[in-house]
Amino acid sequence: RMVAAVLAGLSLLSLLTCSYLAWGSRRGGAGDAPGNLLGEEPAAGAPRSQPHIIFILADDQGFRDVGYHGSEIRTPTLDKLAAEGVKLENYYVQPMCTPSRSQLITGKYQIHTGLQHSIIRPTQPNCLPLDNVTLPQKLKEVGYSTHMVGKWHLGFYRRECMPTQRGFDSFFGSLLGSGDYYTHFKCDSPRICGYDLYENNNAAWDHDNGIYSTQMYTQKVQQILASHNPRKPIFLYIAYQAVHSPLQAPGRYFEHYRSINNINRRRYAAMLACLDEAINNVTLALRKYGYYENSIIIYSSDNGGQPMAGGSNWPLRGSKGTYWEGGIRAIGFVHSPLLKNKGSVCKELVHITDWFPTLITLAEGQIDEDIQLDGYDVWETISEGRHSPRVDILHNIDPIYTKAKNGSWAAGYGIWNTAIQSAIRVNHWKLLTGNPGYSDWVPPQAFSNTGPNRWHNERISWSAGKTVWLFNITADPYERVDLSARHPEVVKQLLRRLSQFNKTAVPVRYPPKDPRSNPKLNGGVWGPWFKEDEKKKKSEKSKGASKQKKMKKKKKAN
Fold first, then answer.
1. Helices (H) and strands (E) in the chain, counts
2. What ranges do the domains of the chain cover?
3. pLDDT in tens, 6-31
4. What angle do CA 288, 290, 293 make, to 5 degrees?
5. Its pTM surpasses 0.85
6. Closest to 197 (Cα-Cα) out of 173, 221, 162, 217
7. How far is CA 8 from CA 17, 23, 385, in A?
8. Integer Cα distance of 538 and 54 in angstroms
9. Dihedral of the CA atoms 73, 77, 82, 83 (nearest 10)?
10. Contact 106/351 with Cβ under 8 angstroms?
11. Helix (H) / strand (E) containing 297
12. Which of 95, 115, 307, 442 could make a disulfide contact with 327, Cβ separation 3.0–4.6 Å?
């Protein structure tokens, strides 16, 4: 009896202590880490509550263009955050802006959203299909405040396509794919020009103070963090415009790069230096306002670099807009006090679609069974070093892009038409068909002149009519040895996998441009032009006209 009484007393004491600590952890100051009572830290990898999620997406940053990949461009902030976190060294995105952003926000491949061809153009009546549930919508369901700062590029032809209608509580940034960093004007073609800076659903003329966009977006992020309660979870999606062309940067960032002769590379370096400083300021704000200790910071580029615009993917092959590794293998890392294996390198397969289920699970959200995702929850892979649940990646199937003149069903063993541009990764193997795009290797010395000088580039002259390539990416990450002739059975297996994926594809959404999109018809601003009311009125008029015709016919018959 005495033993039972003692145990009961200890249990009660333990319960009271736990309750006190839990209550105390909710009373921390704005600058204190949640649950940091008496200076004690919770176990690494165990979120005290729903974590703050900060997703930073750079634009057109090349694989080599970070200090820890050997770049001559200094990126001390990125280097430090990556070194203290987990570097993703087998991480894939899509080769262009819209595809990567759509897959991030839906967790689905392009073939399952209809955006498998090119990007969404400013004049197209097109956007991310409205029947797709988005990442911010799912996070809002479990109590997150959701904010987006930066580049949208997922369509805006109607109001329902705008970021604030797709799950974000607030939006400050641009709708298009590029534009002037200071004036925020963009010309899609001669005399089709307009202003492209928005706050929520309206043009942000009041913020048009000639501030460089990287700095302006960072100031907005600081304001959001300062005004939000750090005890409530926040999802902050920061999609910087940098380092996409046009190549512009404030003068002081050129100081360390005067020795770079190539003007595009020099400007690009200055832009990246400014971006690195901006991310440092975001990190400082997370610490200052009490978010950092319970935060997960994810950094990613949206695609490979563009050598003609200063970017470098060396030693990878190809560039932005191609399905060679230089177009789709990206810089990526996760930095968080919640990681178990800090300071490590993850070489497991990770794709941009994986963030959707990973972040929803971390946020204690639910993924509906009827949402057929292409992404996987990879948090244990990243945080604990476990094997990735992912064994393959459909890089894309683009049925519209059939520029490989010699492609045929025969070349695809009767399984696949190799005129179609497609690429797939299964375990160690990668298969490409059709025309994968610009295929040079562009070494650092290519930027030594005013060029870049293509004489420095490495090339392989393929035999005429080639439309199938096979590589062992694990053994040959630079895609130098084509194995398609040596392993025809592997080629057939991957072609069958492509065919299986293609059976699940939805029709391509790539409408012709709409003249009503001209900013001149919208107060000089790029913005929604498709009016649902107009469509209803037209349909009502047509219905009314058809009724009148029927009445006239009846009278004549009578």
1. 11, 18
2. 52-392, 397-445+462-504
3. 334 434 333 333 332 232 332 233 23
4. 110
5. yes
6. 173
7. 14, 22, 40
8. 44
9. 90
10. no
11. strand 295-301
12. 95
Tokens 């794709």 belong to: 351
**Nearest Cα residue to 470 out of 498, 443, 442:** 498
Is 317 a residue whose pLDDT tops 90?
Answer: yes
Active-site option among 112, 153, 184, 395: 153
Comparing 9-23, 215-229, 327-341, 348-362, the range with the smallest average pLDDT is 9-23
Beta bridge partners of residue 55, listed in sequence order: 237, 298
DSSP state of 72: S
Which of these, 352, 425, 390, lies nearest to 107 by C-alpha position? Answer: 352
> Is 167 a residue whose pLDDT tops 70?
yes
CATH topology for 52-392?
Alkaline Phosphatase, subunit A (3.40.720)
Helix axes 97-106, 355-362, angle to 10 degrees: 30
Residue 44: the pLDDT is 43
Answer yes or no: are the C-beta atoms of 109 and 353 closer than 8 Å.
yes
Which phi-psi region, left, alpha or beta, contains residue 163 (left: φ > 0; alpha: ψ -120 to 50)?
alpha
Contact by Cβ (8 Å): 132, 106: yes
Question: How are the residues of the chain apportioned to helix, strand and coil, as percentages rounded to the nearest 5?
Answer: 35, 15, 50
Q: In angstroms, rounded to a whole number, what is the distance separating the alpha carbons of residues 409 and 402? A: 13
**198-199 and 350-351 beta bridge pairing:** unpaired
- Distance (Å, whole) CA 160 – CA 246: 29
Q: Which of 97, 127, 161, 346 is catalytic?
A: 97
**Are the folds of 52-392 and 397-445+462-504 the same?**
no
What burial class does residue 79 get, using C-beta atoms within 10 Å of its C-beta: 0-12 exposed, 13-18 middle, 19+ buried?
middle
pLDDT tens-digit map of 131-152: 999 999 999 999 999 999 999 9
Reduced to 3 states (helix: H, G, I; strand: E, B; else coil), residue 519 is helix
The domain defined by 397-445+462-504 folds into: Arylsulfatase, C-terminal domain (3.30.1120)
Average pLDDT, the chain: 88
Looking at residue 403, its pLDDT comes to 85
Query: pLDDT at position 206, please?
Result: 87
Q: Is 550 exposed, middle or buried (0-12, 13-18, 19+ CB in 10 A)?
A: exposed
pLDDT at 174: 98
Is 193 an annotated catalytic residue?
no
- Residue 5 binned pLDDT confidence (cut-offs 50, 70, 90): very low
Average pLDDT over residues 490-504: 98
Phi and psi for 351 in degrees, rounded to 5? -130, 155
The C-alpha atoms of residue 85 and residue 335 are separated, in whole angstroms, by: 4
203 phi and psi angles, rounded to 5 deg: -60, 135
Q: Which two tokens stand for residue 65?
A: 């263009």
